[in-house]
Specification:
With 401 residues, the chain is of the alpha+beta class. It has helices at residues 6-17, 37-45, 59-72, 83-94, 96-107, 117-125, 128-144, 149-171, 178-181, 193-206, 245-252, 266-272, 282-292; strands at residues 20-21, 31-32, 35-36, 312-314, 323-327, 336-345, 348-356, 359-365, 370-376, 395-396.
Length: 401
């Protein structure tokens, strides 16, 4: 392979995972650098001669576990830069099966927990920044649903925010060649090159934070860093174009297909607090995603209800995740379609919405029929401006009734 983000990804992960701990509140039990004792026991069976206690695990073996059991298992070398790190850290923290399935749902491929050629190709076609944000939003939502969130939530939330920011930064720069990522910046014994380089980078990253006593976590998510709580601080920097939480909700439904006659949409109806089986459901879907993200929608099944609802403000232009309305028939007809804005190119405006060809999908809509871009008053206003996107392979237009 020509390039890999593995070196930087592992160094950042090790900062979060910390050193040795054995927190009685953590069902994961005894750990070292994020590796569980039981995980180490399994590894030793195929690597005789290693110490029994995970606290004494050689660094090169810890790195080998992360490479083989997580990075390689998730095919991260084949994923776009930034996406690879977001998926890798999610896999370590919450299990490779969950990380793979989330990725597959977001890129609309078969959800089987095995990252293969179809998932890799779809991930490469997607907007890396949008995909990273959606992965991190889903990850945070999952963590918030765990019973141990009240105990470990601050550290977990901090970790997700930092992974998001670092992954987005990785999108904007080329990955290091794989051979460079394994080389030491200063002369060192050959067998220690990878370790020394990673330790150096990890040390540099760690130096950006104040480190003190740690906070551990639940073994279900493997969040047991000895440094998380000490690194919890306010006023975190946020990416300028962070996708809103309702967009991640919408992405999670990609691939849903209605039953004939606008049926099978009961979940959306319940979340949206509007509509009924058989209704055109583009507005029901948009409202469902907003409500699921904690934002009050219009609670109307009419696509253009957002244009007159006092809880929404009209933006001066498009923004990532903006509720976008369009007219059908004529601008004054009152009928139309509604979706979330993803970007645009010469094919039109890339829409993520429901009841698009009887499903939740991404498709292009004509720019000339857009009647407005809308944003919840309760949410911080976004950056406004057209977002150029590469051809997403989406269809043009479709059935929205």
């Amino acid at each position: 392979m020509a390039a890999s983000s593995y070196g930087e990804a592992l160094a950042r992960l090790l900062v979060h995972e910390g050193g040795n701990d054995d927190d009685p509140r953590d069902p994961g039990g005894r750990t070292s650098r994020g590796i569980l004792q039981r995980e180490w026991d399994v590894w030793r069976r195929g690597h005789p001669g290693l110490p029994a206690d995970v606290w004494r695990a050689p660094q090169d073996q810890v790195e080998a576990i992360y490479r083989q059991k997580y990075w390689d298992a998730l095919r991260c070398d084949d994923l776009p830069a930034g996406v690879d790190y977001a998926v890798f850290d999610y896999g370590v923290n919450s299990g490779i099966g969950r990380a793979a399935k989330v990725l597959q749902r977001l890129v609309a491929t078969a959800v089987d927990g095995e990252v293969g050629p179809d998932t890799i190709a779809a991930a490469k076609r997607a907007s890396a920044a949008t995909l990273i944000a959606a992965i991190c939003d889903e990850r945070l939502a999952f963590l918030q649903g765990l019973r141990t969130w009240p105990t470990f939530g601050k550290g977990w939330g901090r970790r997700v925010r930092e992974v998001r920011a670092a992954a987005l930064a990785m999108v904007a720069k080329p990955a290091l060649p794989a051979v460079v990522a394994q080389a030491a910046p200063v002369p060192a014994p050959a067998q220690r090159r990878s370790t020394d380089w990673l330790a150096s980078l990890a040390g540099a990253i760690t130096g950006m934070f104040k480190r003190a006593s740690g906070q551990r976590g639940d073994s279900m998510v493997r969040a047991h860093s000895a440094s998380e709580e000490a690194r919890e601080r306010a006023d975190d920097a946020k990416p300028a174009d962070k996708p809103p939480p309702w967009l991640a909700k919408a992405e999670s439904y990609l691939g849903f297909h209605e039953r004939p006659g606008n049926r099978g949409i009961e979940e959306f109806i319940a979340l949206a607090k509007c509509g009924a089986g058989g209704d055109p459901w583009c507005a029901i879907f948009v409202n469902a995603c907003l409500e699921a993200a904690g934002v009050r929608g219009t609670r109307s099944a009419m696509a253009r209800s957002f244009e007159r609802d006092g809880n929404f403000v009209k933006l001066n232009g498009p923004a990532l995740g903006a509720v976008t309305t369009m007219w059908r028939g004529s601008p004054s007809s009152g009928s139309g379609h509604v979706f979330f804005y993803l970007g645009e190119n010469d094919k039109g405006v890339l829409a993520l919405g429901g009841n698009q060809s009887d499903q939740v999908c991404r498709q292009y809509e004509p720019r000339a029929r857009i009647s407005g871009y809308w944003w919840p008053k309760t949410a911080a206003l976004p950056n406004v401006g057209r977002i150029a996107v590469a051809d997403a392979g989406a269809r043009v237009g479709g059935s929205e009734v």
